[in-house]
Automatic annotation (TrEMBL):
Subcellular location: Cell membrane
GO cellular component, one term: plasma membrane
Membrane topology listed for this record: Multi-pass membrane protein
Protein name: MFS transporter
Coiled coil: none
Species the sequence originates in: Nonomuraea turkmeniaca
Keywords linked to the UniProt accession: Cell membrane, Membrane, Transmembrane, Transmembrane helix, Transport
Gene Ontology molecular function, alphabetical: transmembrane transporter activity
Length: 397
């Protein structure tokens, strides 16, 4: 009995212990924000049903959002290093709340376009600041676990927010905008009150991204990240289209299978994050990329909800392996005074992937399932190989 009572707390401490209190404030704010993330998953439905836009018009509006998001993290990276982590994160969240409400009450096409551009510009401003805060607050040995816990909190909040958002949308879309805005304000206030400013006192002489772009290891890792992001972006772009249009699954069947992704992450990821964090980062990340690529390649052969769930389980396993590793690698490569800009370049790869994924995936899917999903599998393997090549340089840092 006594041994059992000792083992359980020891296990809990190994998963969540040893991290500073400001980190948990940041984690709590991230969770609250993701619990309230309801607008973006339903934007297309809102634009076509509530505002009466055509599919082409809705696509144009989403393209404007994408243009804003391409600039978002680059701008935020500079602000994080120059203005401060806490101010950038809190300011970005307040700006996101204002843009959300502006979009919710916009009725004309010009107003919707302007609101969507601003929303794209500010919605991810918090990411470089959050990544830099974790790097500043948490020791290098604990960073993979800390970034993994943030990833877990994001997925936990998002899964609940999606469920609640679907129910609330039936009662009026404006509820989604208000809850999203209020959760953003709550995140801003919590960080401002409970998280100290951690920006180093030294000022970097360079004004932009030149010094980051001269770091060949970081640029190469950004390309690996682009491959990773292209894979992940397919889950929100071409995977739903392929399953409903080609495999002929219903939206309900697709949603049921995709729910497995969130369940596995919420249940499994916190149990293994500490163990994964003690492995070599480059090799672990390469393994995760290869498994993700394998999962997407197997999607070629999906014929039913069950087999879709099997492939989702495979690439989710790879997603769990990679969780937290990328952020810790960026923190390792970045000088303390440039962590915002390094994180901004890392985030820029994800924004580019969100634009490229449908542009590349659509024509490939027109050719056939194999053309798209074997290509994605190849992207995963090439990215994994690139990560292994980068391993020695990252270990030297």
């Amino acid at each position: 009995m006594s041994s059992a009572t000792v083992e359980k707390p020891s296990f809990l401490r190994s998963q969540i212990g040893g991290l500073p209190r400001p980190f948990w404030a940041l984690w709590g704010g991230t969770l609250v924000n993701r619990l309230g993330t309801m607008v973006m998953p339903f934007t297309g439905v809102y634009l076509t049903q509530s505002r009466g836009l055509s599919l082409t018009g809705a696509g144009l509006v989403m393209g404007v959002f994408g243009a804003g998001s391409l600039l978002s993290q680059l701008l935020a990276g500079v602000l994080t290093d120059r203005v401060g982590r806490r101010a950038t994160l809190s300011g970005g969240m307040l700006a996101t709340a204002a843009a959300m409400l502006a979009l919710g009450y916009s009725t004309s096409v010009p107003a919707i376009l302007a609101s969507m551009f601003v929303l794209g510009l500010v919605i991810d401003v918090y990411r470089p600041a959050s990544n830099a805060l974790v790097a500043d607050l948490v020791s290098p040995a604990e960073r993979p676990r800390a970034y993994g816990l943030l990833f877990w909190g994001i997925n936990l909040g998002y899964s609940v927010g999606m469920t609640a958002g679907g129910w609330l949308a039936g009662h009026g879309f404006i509820w989604l905008f208000w809850i999203d805005a209020l959760s953003s304000v709550a995140f801003a206030v919590l960080v401002w009150r409970a998280v100290p400013e951690t920006r180093p006192a030294e000022r970097e002489s360079g004004g932009g991204f030149g010094v980051v772009l001269r770091d060949r290891v970081m640029v190469a890792f950004t390309l690996v990240t682009l491959g990773h992001a292209l894979l992940y972006s397919q889950t929100m772009t071409m995977l739903p289209v392929a399953m409903t249009k080609v495999v002929k699954l219903t939206p309900a069947q697709f949603g049921l299978a995709m729910a497995l992704n969130g369940v596995l992450i919420v249940v499994v990821q916190p149990l293994v994050s500490g163990w994964l964090g003690r492995r070599d980062a480059s090799r672990t990340f390469a393994l995760g990329l290869a498994v993700i690529g394998l999962g997407f390649a197997l999607t070629t052969f999906v014929t039913s909800t069950f087999w879709l769930a099997v492939t989702i389980a495979v690439w989710t396993a790879g997603e769990i392996v990679t969780a937290g590793i990328a952020g810790s690698i960026v923190a390792t490569l970045a000088p303390a005074e440039l962590r915002g800009r390094y994180s901004g370049l890392f985030g820029f790869a994800w924004s580019v992937a969100a634009v490229l994924a449908p542009l590349l995936g659509g024509p490939l899917l027109d050719v056939g399932m194999g053309a798209l999903w074997f290509t994605m599998g190849g992207v995963g393997l090439v990215s994994a190989a690139g990560m292994l090549v980068l391993g020695p340089a990252i270990r030297r840092r």
